[in-house]
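User: I'm writing a short methods note and want a consistent example. For AraC-like DNA-binding protein, I'll paste the sequence; you return only the structure tokens, no commentary, since I'll be parsing the reply automatically.
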Amino acid sequence: MINYEKRGYLNSNFKLFHLMDEGKQSYDYHYHDFDKIIIFIQGSVTYRIEGCAYSLEPYDIILVSHNDIHRPDIAAHIPYERIIVYLSPGFLNAYQSDDYDLSACFQKSRELHSHVLRIHSMEKSSLYRTLTNLEYACTHDGYAKDLYCQVVFLEFMIQLNRASLTNRVQYLPPSTGDARILSIMDHINSHLTEDMTVDLIAESFFISRYHLMHLFKEETGYTLFDYITEKRLLLARERLRTGISVTDVCFSCGFKNYSTFSRAYKNKFHISPSETIKEDTILL
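Assistant:
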């Protein structure tokens, strides 16, 4: 099984970086425990997220949810500049009401299978001005810096969601050679807890087993079996962190026996399922 690595760590509600890379940059497929917002500034980059590929233009906004498997393909010898915000998945939950939800832009992204928002004339938009203020707030010391950064970040998220809800941003359509792949990925993520085999998926989508496996690998970069196992392990870790017993998590996440689950989990996360429960109990 391909072992997609977790990259980056977050020990606060959010964190902002302004990065510029020059020279050859190469990334493997990976995932994060946190959500990520990228504001692309310059470079020649194709971003690949969950089977979709996007050719980026300056000021495109990329939304990557936690556990999304992704990577950028970066042209050599062209500077790659971007602003990245790491965001705790639970942070925005504290800012929900019957009238608003600051995670709505991520939800719409998932529904549309579109991870990239394109804003024309970004430099003239209120969103750009708020982004500039946010970067300044996060990189300059001053009275109540952390609180001020949080206030400006919330303003940025409000502006982003307003732009999304009023269609002032374009959710780019996913670029994939075969629309069936997106439907298959939806099917997989909706049935992780159920019995699911390559043969059953192939039968459900009226496609031969061989063609399905070949097409999935060609379109997404990972094998069908590896993708299913990866998503089940990520789901298992989330459930373990809520205090569900190891045995219940094993069988509720589609694994047929404990030894297979435990071995795959240790190989993936480098700790045992029971150690995950203890680790998060200590953190609490």
